[in-house]
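Notes, p. 3: input format for complexes.
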Amino acid sequence: MNDVVNAQMFEALFNQSPSPVSVVRADAPAFTIVAVNDVYVKRSYLNKDQILNKPSFEVYKPWDEASAEQFKLLREGLMQAVYDKQQINLPTLSFEAPAKDGEAGSRSWWQIQISPVLDTAGEVEYLMCVTRNVTEQEQVRKQAEESREKEQELNEELQVINEELAATNEELTSTIEELSYSQERLSRLNNELEERITARTAALTASERRYKTILNTLPQIAWTTTLQGDVSFFNQRWYEYTGLSVEQSKATGWEDVIHPDDLEYSVRTYRDIVATKRPGEYELREKGTDGIYRWHLIRVQPIRNEFGDIEHWIGTATDIDSIKQLQQQKDDFISIASHELKTPITSLKASLQLMDKVKDNPTSDMMPRLILQSRKSIQRVSVLIEDLLNVSRLQQGEVQLNKSTFIVSQLLNACCNPIAIMGKQKIKIDGEVELQVCADEHRIDQVVTNLVNNAVKYAPESEFITLCIEKDFDMVKVSVSDNGPGVSEDKIPHLFDRYYRVDSSGYHASGLGLGLYISAEIIKRHGGEIGVDSKIGKGSTFWFTLPLIEDYD
Ligand code: ADP
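Output follows (553 residues plus adenosine-5'-diphosphate):
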């Protein structure tokens, strides 16, 4: 084959190559382009004149800084091939490929193989650059790399999430642990609380039972009320005194028992006391099973728990009726005593005034009457004062008994004579007239005089007043009977009380209500007894006993 044929064959091969191929002169740094195949021309969008015999780095200028770096590698590769006289495979390079007019350039990747072409002297004359477009592979690789990176990123994110999740999990576990510990503690506390409540309820029930037992043993009426004022308990005495059943007590309770005149006052006072949260007391009348209202002292007191809070109120009602009656009697006594003293003194005053008028006529027949009247008045005042003194002496235990032995009937005769002379009733002395006693004659005289005077005073219509002396075992019993109006049964127990008068409202019969009291005290001091048998409309027998002296001659 000749050279022409060879050249034609080479050109054909050169041009048929599917990859762009260029041949450059080995004259660094120009590396002038001497030949390019058709594909090269086609890809470059230039014509051959614009390419051939031009320094290669003038045909293609770096697009930007990044492609300048690629051109630098290409130049170094060319120089290396000249120097080494060996084929150089450049790493994949990326260029901004020039575009057709009006079209944007696109990025492409190329693998360039630089092969030195030697001259006959063995020197590198040309360099042949076979370029292979690896854009597709590169893009696939890039995508794979990107997806790997993404995967990596995702993995990292996942890792972070996982770690966070693990931390959260850990936190959650410890929170759950704490929670279960707290729950355990809570249930333990709950149990303790329940136990305490049970114990407290039991203690409360026991203490409630205890105080209810105590309240039931009280002789007074007692009850408890809630903070709202409802009665929660009545003691035994309440039911005994009022006769109400449990149901009746719950239903109307107090309203049935309190005197209508005291009801409003007591409700108001009770409310006032409760409002002060302090103990208080007031008085009212309460009706018993006998239908009689008796004065009671009401005391109410708050009951507090260990924290000082009021849990309920406790109340008691104490019967003060006898004290009230005594107070009333005392009040009556003072007004009666004044009246009793005033009457003889007024009469004395009148007698003295009259005597003053007739003083110049001593022979006036008025004078003896006036003197007698004055004496009587003075006597009356002395008796009253004597009674009062006796009461105070007796109370203070100052009465001394001067005992002597005497015949009872003689004493009765002696003290009845003056009364018999003055009064209109007939006085009889009956019985065992020889009986003797050892007693204070003066004091027994006082007792008999009082009994006979009472018969005169309170049984004025009675024709006879009978005194009787009897032997009653080892005692001498002296009785004074009349056929007067008598004393009603309910009054009898009080007759010997201090200041007691059956008809305390009127003054139709004078007296301080002391005579029988003094008499009873004197008899008691002698070791005897005093009493009365009386019936309304039938008369009364007042009696006393004294120890008998048996062996007398
Ligand atoms: P006074 O000094 O007021 O007479 P007493 O203590 O002697 O007081 O008597 C007390 C009360 O007993 C009198 O108020 C009277 O009502 C009553 N009383 C005493 N004796 C008789 C009697 N013989 N008949 C009826 N009532 C009597």
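Residues 450, 454-455, 458-459, 482, 484, 487, 495, 500-503, 511-517, 540 surround adenosine-5'-diphosphate (CB under 6 Å).
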